[in-house]
TrEMBL record:
Cofactor: how bound: Binds 1 Fe(2+) ion per subunit.
Domain of life: Eukaryota
EC number: 3.1.1.64, 5.3.3.22
Source organism per UniProt: Tetraodon nigroviridis
The protein's name in its UniProt record: Retinoid isomerohydrolase
Amino acid sequence: MVSRFEHPAGSYKKIFETCEELAEPVPATVTGRIPPFLKGSLLRLGPGLFEVGDEPFYHLFDGQALMHKFDFKNGQVTYYRKFIKTDAYVRAITENRVVITEFGTFAYPDPCKNIFSRFFSYFKGVEVTDNCLVNVYPIGEDYYAVTETNYITKVNTDTLETLKKVDMCNYVNINGVTAHPHIEKDGTVYNIGNCMGKGASLAYNIVRTPPTQKDKSDPIEKSKVVVQFPSAERFKPSYVHSFGMSENYFVFVETPVKINLLKFLSAWSIRGSNYMDCFESNENQGTLFHIAKKNPGEYIDLKFKGAAIGMFHHINTFEDQGFIVFDLCSWKGFEFVYNYLWLANLRANWEEVKKAAMMAPQPEVRRYVIPLDVHKEEQGKNLVSLPYTTATATMHSDGTIWLEPEVLFSGPRQAFEFPQINYKKFSGKNYTYAYGLGLNHFIPDRICKLNVKTKETWVWQEPDSYPSEPLFVQTPDGVDEDDGVILTIVAAPGSQRPAYLLILNAKDLSEVARAEVECSIPVTFHGMYKH
């Protein structure tokens, strides 16, 4: 699953360049045959505007949200894209400058205001960004484009029109929610975010939003906190990007990457700071693993601990014979991986890109196992008795249970990231296959498939081609877990047609079809296939 290519020509720089939205859908040129069961849309989100006027955005997660759509109809494919008309975007375009501070870009105060009005605007507090460039998912009958703040943006997935900005703080005690909810078959949505807990200390809340209501009212208004996880540090919650959910349990991984809230609250008004300035690593904490019962929600007060990792994406979580098994895309050590995702780093020449990645945390796909039945007297003994894994859990004398993972995949500076599974049928269940985007020194250059049981791997890769997160779509009458196709958007900057939608057979990652477009497509993060 290691990359076969170097990228000395540096054509990957093109995926971090501004593009224009489209006035109407454009036809794509199809080679191969589009599977007839593909009748819906592939929706993707990512940054599309990397500077405003002469002011650049600095970080990968700062560019303004652009929504992409590939529509399938009668074996034909069209491509469409629109900027989401967030407050951040509309105000930036109107004033031709960065108005709202983004993840790694500080918005300077309005140069037209005098010192008094500037002084008073400090007391209005921070304007948090609504730049929803990360993902899109359904809540009830509606679709929302999201980032990781308290704002989510309702969109029309047919016309790509922006409908409304929703503040989750109006409904639940949460400071923000992740872009990685879990969605059950009936449409129930679970998400996590940090919040003010008891006694003015920080905590993490899991929020449940019910499916479509009979009376057609908005399910978001019925959102409730199901369970609360404690924070290891009172004023410094860990950065949380996703969480695990099995049939009956939640898994929350509390990493050493912390948000210094005091810095966060003071820094903004004082000097030109952004979100990135407020992260720090606790070099002594290691990683804490928490579990809670799902229904009814109940925190299980056991102390599971492991070596320090950074972690963004859970792959899957399931229960087996009294154990919770969860697979993660991890990054070894306590340093924040986002430190390596400044656009200047990603747009550097290949040798520079490689040099920077040499210093970064190393990626590894890991399986951890948590025993649900823990006896204090079994000190020093491995509590994991599942026959198929080498992951261990060992009780220490202080009552903590130390977790050692099984490594499912590891390659130097070769990450298996943006993981996807056959979510419809195998989310929360014992599964076999994970699909991922292969990062080569942080540059996405291949699609990978991993058998988590045998560690067998498959790769799709072409020179100077930069794919995105692979989404799995099941064949309607499919029997096997991997009966289906993989959808990914590939940027091929050197080619006649600079981008295409690629359809692969999920069994062996062989090409089924591609649909090429005349315009280039920048990097996208996450998305969904809408039937």
